[in-house]
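HUMAN:
Could you generate one sequence with tokenized structure?
ASSISTANT:
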Amino acid sequence: KAVSQILIKQGYGGKIINMSSVSGINGVANFGAYCASKFAVRGLTQVLAKELGPHDIQVNAICPGMIVTERTQEIAKALSKKGVSTEEFIQEDKKRVIATTPLGKIATPNDIAQIAAFLASSESNLITGKSFTVDGGATMNWENWEKRMPKITGSQFMSETFKGYGVTHLVQTLLANKSYKPPAVRGRCRN
């Protein structure tokens, strides 16, 4: 809301990119609160696209699948069974995801940054109200994806894995990532 008011006041349009999740495309049993929040992000993206379109403001969302970041360590600590190290859990989870993903790999922070850079560029000026899935095709095999999810409640998952995290943390992680290479953006990109 605050960003849209600034963009409207400036009077030359702009871009808003929201972060959702593949869990905002397909629901996951026992993760109702998390899935509902990610579905809500996609719905809000569409509403804002309609409301802000007359001001030449494009609003889109990114729906990442599994990405290995520092947050993955926290999730693994919360979800791994006794006797299984955090690293073992991550490696097994990566194998399960890769096995059910058509491209046979998981996303990196750079993959998410690339789509964000495209959506922020002038090359996406006619794209609004859309959600972009970055998961190597995993959502096409959702029934297999869902089977890999732990059998805990969504509130346990949320309280254990999302302490202090959010979009701000994701952006900070992307910016701090030494391997991130910003894409070449052609044309004028407005902030």
